[in-house]
Amino acid sequence: MNRSLFGRACTNLLMNAIQHCEPDASISVTIARDGDQVRVAVANPGAPIAPDILEHLFDRFYRAEASRTNSRENHGLGLAIVKAIAEMHRGTVSAHSANGVNTFSFSVAASVTTPASEMPAAAVRTNTGTATDAAYSSLAKGKSA
Asked: How far apart are CA 143 and CA 145, in angstroms?
């Protein structure tokens, strides 16, 4: 597994959640084994997303709202990059919206994953924090989606 690409996919999901929830909202990150896959899921509170939009969110250049205020900063590639990375590692992507929570996830084949002992500590546990905390943490490490 390419650790840099795996990290990029995680960062893109996290930045997507940060951009689409209130500053003091909690974001949940879960990494779990799911059969022969390892799944990373990022969930945040947010407005419901219609099923016809959910099915396109991982498409290149797709934006649910063309008039978004940050449309010049974002080009609709973050989730498409997540999809490409997942597929490179024999995985899949998914998006769900229910009960005021939007969850985006990707999986990679467990046979190509890095052993937990070699993964950064933050990547092998479930972690919940506010969107503001996550944004500051990402910025402090010089990462962006």
From this structure: 7
